[in-house]
Each structure stands twice: as structure tokens, then as C-alpha cells.
């Protein structure tokens, strides 16, 4: 028995897990216990890629020993990574109960705690208990109804109740797995193929830039509104008010420079009523404002980072296209990001040209072909795994065709690692691409909030067992799939977590609807039915030869052109914080000038924010008139120099020049 391969694989998986959690989350800013729980859950979900093949090779070796017992055991060679069945059962027990405890108890409570907007630990704990009491209370009602049904049927005992619970969990997990695989098995090869096509990648980048611009404007509008709300509360809550420490906490979470020091302090010589804020301000309002500020700042920073990444990607594609016909075969980028790694900053113009212009496309075409073959084999094996005589599943045939010597076990483990790994990538890829509006969304570059990380961790944990059960059924190592009566030499996973069973009233039709659902989902994904439906509903999706997509591509191309010109003139103004502050200040000044020139009427436009609040006593009309004229002059300068005033969408979806202050006059 050798633990070295398992130990090395565990270290590699743990390193990959920490890297992914750090890439999507922020280990320095998130709660320590949140990062620990997310790392543990993701590590368990990724570990099955290497642990299950070791279990399979150990099972095949034990079957060989039993088959040749008393005859010639020398024909069965022990696998190089052999781990005893007893040890594997202990490992699977730890994984199973840890994942169940995390996904059903710990992670939901932790998610409720970290997403609560209360100001104290006691308040967060109260909100956590209240939220989960509703969820688990509803779940208890469903379980009670189910128990009443089982009692009425006269089938209630310990064994049957446990079996029904396990099979119900398997049924739910298998259906979710089918949905995820139906999307991932088709979209991954297609995405890799499109990534090899330069024109497609460039047009898709233009499209995403145009869409993200709208989302970024909406996020900044929401941030302006919540910051105005914070300023209003700062005006009403005095320094000696018991709520002042809470509003000060909220103000500290606003972007730097938006809430000035003058907004936090009031003239102590002004007369005011100590109870003026008590009628309108309550703790629930402060909590709601706190939640809105956190969400608005998070969304704005996330979209600003995505904007910078998309612009850099589009600029890179344009450089590749422009230098494809270079005679000296030397790549000369027009602009490099100052945040690029040192290796990317190193100048190897000749190698860079050959990679980006010639080799990159060929490499991704080759990877896309391999992904297509893997997806076709996976779908065929998923559809035909129920057929045991003859064996139609390609994966089952390959495992059965290998021998029982050292080289055969190495090939078997390698085949299982590649297969389980590809299926896991297809299933987990769908989760990582999943976006529930802007609430649960995995964004790279450390811009994923803790709630989204925990939500993803719960999903991954619940898919671990169904993914293993599905693969064991595909290679015919599950006796309930093959119909074998001898269960003595099952895998340690099967002995611990059960078989690929579903709830009884669906068992007779499982082998019919499982392949049909998978094939249907794959076909719908292949023809992009979901994108076409969303596009018809007004939610823009990237479709070739579509008029709306063409308009957005043209608009995105104009954004990239303006951004290239701006970065070429002033490369130091590309940081997220400076973007955010300049954009918000410019927008606020323009809104104030427009409101003053229109007699105080607020324009009804999606990209225009509230008028800036005035603090202190009212000024006379002459002072207000002089201020409005000064604001108009400053707005004229901002309209020429500010990077935030790019272009806005026209009435027909085209691109027009940004509106200045005097256009509205």
C-alpha cells in the first residue's frame, strides 16, 4: 500500500483550490472562517477527481484477487497507488459526512451571517437565526407531509426511511447534474473553438463592452443614489445622536472622496431640535441603507474591474489583427497594462508574434477538437450506460478491456482521471458561469462577495456524490446498474454512499427519461435555444447575423476606440478608484447644472443622477445664480476631459457623441 500518490495529489488539489478561492474571492478582506469553509468545501469537491480513480483501481485489483484465489495470485499485480478498502471507506466517510454537514447546516448559517447588514455581532446572529428559521421551518413542513405519506402506506421503519432519504438526495443530485452536463458538454468545446477565431473573439469583446457599459452606468447610478441617501442621513443625524456611530460606519464604506469631511460635521452654533431625526430615522432604515451601500459599492467595483479587463482584451485582439501581416514577424503592442505580470511585461517580440498570430489559433483548434471528441463519447456513454449486454458505453468497454498488471492499472487510473475531470469541469463550469441577476455571481479578480462563494460551495458539495455515482454507472461498477447480485466487491464509495438509485415511483422510468433529458438539453444548447429566447424577450445575447448584436458590436467598437485614445494620452488614469471618483463627481456636477438650468426639474434619463444636496442654510438667489454659472463652466471642461463621458446609446441603438451640458440648454 502506497500513500505517496494520494498525498501528492491532495497537495496539488489543495493548492489549486486556494488559488481559485483567492482568484475569485479576497482572502485579505473576507472573514477568515468564510474562506476556511469555502476552501474545505471546494477541496472536497475537487478531490474526487483523483480519489475515485484510486478507489476504482483498488476495486479491480480486489476482484482479480478473488477471481484467482487458490489458483494463481501472481497474475494480479498490486496498483502503484493502492490504498486498502478499509482506509478508503474511512476517507469516503469523512468526505460524505463533512460535505453533508457543510452543505445543509454550516454553510447556510455562515452565508446568512456574512450577508446580514446589521452593525453588531448580536444583530447579525439574530438575522441569521431568523432567516434560517424560515427556511428550515418550510423544509420541516415538507418532511412532515412526506412522513405522513410513508406512515399511511405502512412502510415506515429505520432502514426504509434512510433508504428513501438517500435515494431522494440521489434523484435531486442526478437531475441537477444532467442539467449542468447538458450545458457544459456542448458549451465548453464551442467556447474553445470560438476562442481560436480572432474575428469572433474581437466581435464578442465589442459586444460585451457595450453591454457592460450599460450595466456600469446603472451601477454608478445606484451608487450615486445610495450615497445621496447617506448624505441625507448625515444631515439629519447629529454627532451626539446614538445612531451617529452607525451612519459613520456606513459613510466609511462609501468610495473615498464621495463623502467629504464637511458632510460629516455640522455647525455647532446652528439651532436644531434634538428629536427631529427620531420621527423619520429608525434602525431598520439604517440597516437597509447599509445593505444598499455594500451592494452598490461591490457591484460598481466589480463592473469597473471587468470593464478594464474587457477593454484590455479588446485592445489586445485589435493589436493581433493589425499586426497579422507584419513583414518582420515582431509583435509591437500599442499599449500594455501596468498591472500585467512581470513575465507578460518582458519583451520577446518575435516569440510573441509567432504565438499570438500563428500558434495560438492552432493550439486552441486542437484543444477544441479534443473537447468535441470527449463530449461526444461522454454523451454516448451517458445515454447507453444502462445497456450491459452488449456493452455500449465506451468508458465501460475501455475499463473492461484493460488488464490487471501495473501498466494496466496506470492506464485505468489515467483514463478515469481524465474522464471524471472532464465531467467535473463541464458540471462546475456551468456553476462558475451561473449568474442569478447580480446577487449570486462569481467574478474573478477578487470581486466575488462572500455570499456568492458560499452559494457556489453549497452547490459543489451537493454535486460530489451524484457525479461519482454517475461515473460508476457509466463504467458498470455499480451492481444496481448492471443487475449483478454479488455486492461483495463494490467500490469503497458505493459501500459508503449507496448506489445509483432514485425514488421508487420513478425507478421504472429512470433509464428512459435520463438519456432523453440529457440529449434534449444538449440539442437545445447546441442550437442556442436559451440565448434566442432571451434575445426575443429583449435581453441582448450575442448572436451572429443579428441586427441587435451588430448594433452593440458597433457601439462597443466605438467605446474601445475612445478608450484607446484616452489611455494613449493619459495612461496613469486607468485605475478603478480614480475612474469611480472622477465619474461620480462629473455626473453629479452635470446633474446639478442641468437641474438649475431647467428650473429645478430633474431630467428623466437612466444615466442622470440626483442633484447634489446642499448643506446648511439656504442662500439668496444671487449666490445660487453665480454658483449655477460656475457649475456650467466646470461642466464644459469636464465634458471635454473626463473619461467617464464617453458615448451614450442613441434612440436606434447606434452610437452618438456624448451629450454636453449646453446641448440640453
Helices and strands in order, then pairings?
Elements (H helix, E strand, L loop, with lengths): L3 H21 L7 H36 L17 H31 L5 H33 L4 H39 L1 H39 L7 H9 L8 H4 L18 H40 L19 H4 L3 H36 L9 H8 L4 H28 L1 E2 L3 E2 L8 H25 L4 H4 L9 H6 L6 H4 L2 H17 L2 H8 L10 H23 L6 H22 L23 H21 L5 E3 L5 E3 L3 H4 L1
Antiparallel strand pairs: 1-2, 3-4
Description:
- The chain is an all-alpha fold and 665 residues long.
- It has a domain at 576-664.
- It is built from 23 helices and four strands.
- The protein has helices at 4-24, 32-67, 85-115, 121-153, 158-196, 198-236, 244-252, 261-264, 283-322, 342-345, 349-384, 394-401, 406-433, 450-474, 479-482, 492-497, 504-507, 510-526, 529-536, 547-569, 576-597, 621-641, 661-664, and strands spanning 435-436, 440-441, 647-649, 655-657.
- Strands 1-2 form a two-stranded antiparallel ribbon.
- β3 and β4 (655-657) form a beta hairpin.
- α3 (85-115) crosses α4 (121-153), α5 crosses α14 (450-474) and α11 (349-384) runs antiparallel to α18.
- The longest helix has 40 residues, at 283-322.
- It starts with a helix and ends with a helix.
- Mean pLDDT is 76; it is low at 267-279 and 569-665.
Q: What is the compact description of this entry?
A:
With 665 residues, the protein is mainly α.
Give short descriptive properties of this protein.
disordered C terminus; 23 helices; mainly alpha; 665 residues; two-stranded antiparallel sheet
Order of strands across the biggest sheet? 1-2
Helix and strand run? HHHHHHHHHHHHHEEHHHHHHHHHEEH
Q: Helicity, in percent?
A: 55-70%
The fraction of residues in strands falls at: under 5%
What's the shape? globular
Count of separate DSSP helical elements: 23
Q: How many E strands?
A: 4
Distance separating the two termini: 83 Å
Amino acid at each position: 500500500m502506497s500513500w505517496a500518490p494520494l498525498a501528492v495529489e491532495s497537495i496539488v488539489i489543495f493548492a489549486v483550490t486556494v488559488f481559485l478561492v483567492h482568484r475569485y474571492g479576497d482572502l485579505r478582506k473576507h472573514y477568515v472562517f468564510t474562506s476556511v469553509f469555502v476552501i474545505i468545501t471546494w477541496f472536497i469537491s475537487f478531490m474526487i477527481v483523483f480519489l475515485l480513480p484510486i478507489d476504482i483501481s483498488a476495486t479491480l485489483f480486489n476482484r482479480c484477487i478473488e477471481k484467482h484465489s487458490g489458483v494463481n495470485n501472481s497474475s494480479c499485480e498490486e496498483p502503484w497507488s493502492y490504498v486498502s478498502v478499509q482506509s478508503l471507506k474511512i476517507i469516503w466517510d469523512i468526505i460524505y459526512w463533512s460535505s453533508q454537514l457543510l452543505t445543509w447546516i454550516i454553510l447556510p448559517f455562515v452565508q446568512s451571517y456574512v450577508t446580514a447588514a446589521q452593525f453588531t455581532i448580536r444583530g447579525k446572529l439574530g438575522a441569521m437565526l431568523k432567516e434560517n428559521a424560515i427556511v428550515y421551518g418550510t423544509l420541516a413542513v415538507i418532511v412532515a407531509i412526506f412522513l405522513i405519506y410513508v406512515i399511511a402506506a405502512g412502510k415506515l421503519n429505520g432502514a426504509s426511511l434512510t433508504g428513501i432519504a438517500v435515494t431522494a438526495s440521489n434523484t435531486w443530485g442526478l437531475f441537477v447534474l444532467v442539467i449542468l452536463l447538458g450545458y457544459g458538454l456542448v458549451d465548453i468545446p464551442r467556447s474553445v473553438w470560438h476562442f481560436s477565431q480572432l474575428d469572433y473573439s474581437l466581435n464578442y469583446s465589442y459586444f460585451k463592452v457595450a453591454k457592460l457599459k450599460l450595466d456600469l452606468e446603472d451601477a454608478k447610478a445606484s451608487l450615486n443614489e445610495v450615497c445621496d441617501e447617506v448624505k441625507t442621513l448625515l444631515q439629519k443625524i447629529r454627532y451626539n445622536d446614538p445612531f451617529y456611530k452607525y451612519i459613520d460606519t456606513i459613510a466609511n464604506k462609501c468610495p473615498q472622496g464621495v463623502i467629504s469631511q464637511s458632510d460629516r460635521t455640522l455647525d455647532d452654533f446652528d439651532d436644531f431640535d434634538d428629536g427631529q431625526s427620531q420621527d423619520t430615522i429608525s434602525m431598520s432604515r439604517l440597516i437597509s441603507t447599509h445593505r444598499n451601500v455594500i451592494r452598490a459599492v461591490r457591484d460598481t467595483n466589480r463592473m469597473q474591474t471587468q470593464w478594464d479587463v474587457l477593454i484590455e482584451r479588446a485592445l489586445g485582439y485589435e493589436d493581433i489583427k493589425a499586426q497579422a501581416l507584419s513583414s518582420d514577424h515582431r509583435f509591437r503592442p500599442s499599449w500594455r497594462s501596468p498591472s500585467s505580470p512581470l513575465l507578460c511585461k518582458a519583451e520577446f517580440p518575435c516569440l510573441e508574434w509567432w504565438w499570438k498570430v500563428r500558434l495560438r489559433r492552432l493550439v486552441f483548434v486542437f484543444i477544441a477538437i479534443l473537447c468535441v471528441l470527449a463530449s461526444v463519447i461522454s454523451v454516448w456513454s451517458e445515454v447507453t450506460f444502462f445497456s450491459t449486454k452488449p456493452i455500449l458505453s465506451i468508458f465501460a468497454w475501455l475499463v473492461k478491456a484493460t488488464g490487471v498488471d501495473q501498466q494496466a492499472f496506470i492506464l485505468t487510473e489515467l483514463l478515469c482521471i481524465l474522464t471524471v475531470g472532464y465531467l467535473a469541469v463541464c458540471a462546475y463550469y456551468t456553476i462558475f458561469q451561473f449568474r442569478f441577476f447580480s446577487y449570486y455571481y462569481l467574478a474573478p479578480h477578487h470581486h466575488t462577495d462572500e455570499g456568492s462563494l458560499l452559494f457556489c460551495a453549497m452547490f459543489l458539495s451537493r454535486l460530489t456524490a451524484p457525479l461519482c455515482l454517475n461515473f460508476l454507472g457509466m463504467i458498470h461498477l455499480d451492481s444496481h446498474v448492471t443487475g449483478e447480485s454479488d455486492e461483495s466487491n463494490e467500490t469503497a464509495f458505493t459501500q459508503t454512499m449507496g448506489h445509483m438509485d432514485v425514488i421508487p415511483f420513478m425507478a421504472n422510468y429512470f433509464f428512459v427519461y435520463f438519456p432523453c433529458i440529457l440529449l434534449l438539453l444538449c440539442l437545445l444548447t447546441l442550437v442556442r435555444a436559451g440565448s434566442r429566447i432571451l434575445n426575443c424577450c429583449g435581453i441582448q445575447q450575442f448572436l451572429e447575423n443579428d441586427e441587435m448584436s451588430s448594433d452593440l458590436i458597433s457601439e462597443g467598437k466605438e467605446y474601445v476606440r475612445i478608450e484607446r485614445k484616452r489611455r494613449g494620452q493619459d495612461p496613469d488614469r486607468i485605475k478603478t478608484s480614480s475612474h469611480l471618483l472622477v465619474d461620480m463627481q462629473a455626473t453629479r456636477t452635470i446633474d446639478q447644472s442641468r437641474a438649475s438650468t431647467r428650473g429645478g426639474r430633474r431630467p428623466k434619463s437612466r444615466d442622470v443622477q440626483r442633484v447634489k444636496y446642499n448643506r446648511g442654510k439656504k442662500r439668496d438667489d444671487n449666490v445660487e445664480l453665480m454658483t449655477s454659472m460656475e457649475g456650467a463652466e466646470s461642466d464644459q471642461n469636464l465634458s471635454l476631459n473626463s473619461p467617464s463621458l464617453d458615448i451614450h446609446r442613441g434612440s436606434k441603438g447606434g452610437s452618438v457623441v456624448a451629450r454636453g451640458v449646453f446641448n440640453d440648454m
